[in-house]
Amino acid sequence: MKYWSPATKALAPYIPGEQLQDRQYIKRNTNENPFPPSEAVAQAIHGCAPDTLRLYPDPEARELKEAIAAYYRVKDAQVFVGNGSDEVLGFSFLAFFRNGRPIAFPDISYSFYQVYCDLFGISYQCPPLTDRYEIDVNDYQAGLGGVIFPNPNAPTGVFTPLAEIETLVRRNPEFVVIVDEAYVDFGAESCVSLVGQHPNLLVIQTLSKSRSLAGLRVGFAIGHEDLIAGLNRVKNSFNSYPLDRLAICGAVAAFHDQSYFEECCARIIRNREWLTAELESRSYFVPASRANFLFARHPVVNGETLYSYLKSEGILVRHLAGPRIKDFVRITIGKEHEMQRLVEALDCLGR
Ligand SMILES: *Cc1c(COP(=O)(O)O)cnc(C)c1O
């Protein structure tokens, strides 16, 4: 620590979910997809000749931008790609939020936002979610330097309707609103349809969750060309080649296998609805989720106890500290038999 700068000493890094190796778990703690990536992705990566790895990848990852632009019917110049959406978020904070004004995000939200603010010296405010764990867009007013939230929100799974997001974006043309759509493919509605009318709206997505590619590290942003140009300026001041050749190849293939993608998402949605009903019938409180996870509160047992009990049963879920969320666990939706096993384990709780 002797050589650490004061700034490094002051950092409080993001704590990712556990990746334990001590035994085989039903691992439902980091919102990974339970299904493998598309066969087309495996083929594309195998087909990427190792000899080409001598060469730097395309710094613009043009092929991937084109695939994403075609998928969302936007211009190539409206797409930015990066090494996971965490990196795209980091570049976005640098490009749009370091403006001297505080930014805002909900008190219950993705904890990386706070980490980036601290890293980049951005001040922030955290308006509380409503009692129903919803975002009230009226809490985000003029004078801010930006707004960011996940939609559906994490770790609650609760979705903010597009009309409300549009109101927020229209009312506040002086700052950028970033909608982090990491979970949008599990039954929510994307804001990409709004970026054409709103130059201050940036939508960020990832291939980590709905396309089963957390290990490939690919995320992207869609917005007005000026926002994308700003992101490119930051990226090219930091790392010109954030996506390697294998990542570009695999990600392009993922966008070309629409039917497998839809099938996996549909199965996760079905399992989510099943688990929601099972938990509700046992008196758990479960806010309606449009994501690939549930945020569940037992009527009496606290979140930490529930987490530890499930871990002892070989089922890993996520417990997050925080005054309003400590009584919940976040359960990533898995395969049918995994969800059945979870419910069986919960039924034995306290016996
Ligand atoms: C998982 C997650 C991300 C990060 O995804 P990567 O693309 O794997 O970096 C971003 N935002 C939210 C809300 C997430 O849950």
Q: How would you describe this structure to a colleague?
A:
This protein has 351 residues and is an alpha/beta fold. The protein folds into 2 domains: 6-36 and 259-347, Aspartate Aminotransferase, domain 1, CATH 3.90.1150.10; 39-257, 3-Layer(aba) Sandwich (Aspartate Aminotransferase, domain 2). 36% of the residues lie in helices and 12% in strands. It has 11 helices and 11 strands. It has helices spanning 6-9, 39-46, 62-72, 84-97, 112-120, 162-171, 225-235, 245-256, 258-281, 303-312, 336-347; strands at residues 26-27, 79-82, 103-104, 124-125, 146-150, 177-180, 201-206, 219-223, 293-297, 315-316, 328-332. α5 (112-120) links the parallel β3 and β4. α2 (39-46) runs antiparallel to α8 (245-256) and α3 (62-72) packs parallel to α8. It is globular and about 60 Å long. The protein starts with 5 loop residues before the first helix and ends with a helix. The protein binds pyridoxal-5'-phosphate (PLP). Pyridoxal-5'-phosphate binds at residues 31, 84-86, 110, 150, 154, 180, 182, 206, 208, 214, 219. The site of pyridoxal-5'-phosphate (PLP) has 13 residues, from α4.
What's the arrangement of secondary structure elements?
Blueprint: H1 6-9, E1 26-27, H2 39-46, H3 62-72, E2 79-82, H4 84-97, E3 103-104, H5 112-120, E4 124-125, E5 146-150, H6 162-171, E6 177-180, E7 201-206, E8 219-223, H7 225-235, H8 245-256, H9 258-281, E9 293-297, H10 303-312, E10 315-316, E11 328-332, H11 336-347
Parallel strand pairs: 1-10, 3-4, 3-5, 5-6, 6-7
Antiparallel strand pairs: 2-8, 7-8, 9-11
Helix pairs in contact: 2-8, 3-8, 4-5, 4-7, 9-11
Bound molecules: pyridoxal-5'-phosphate.
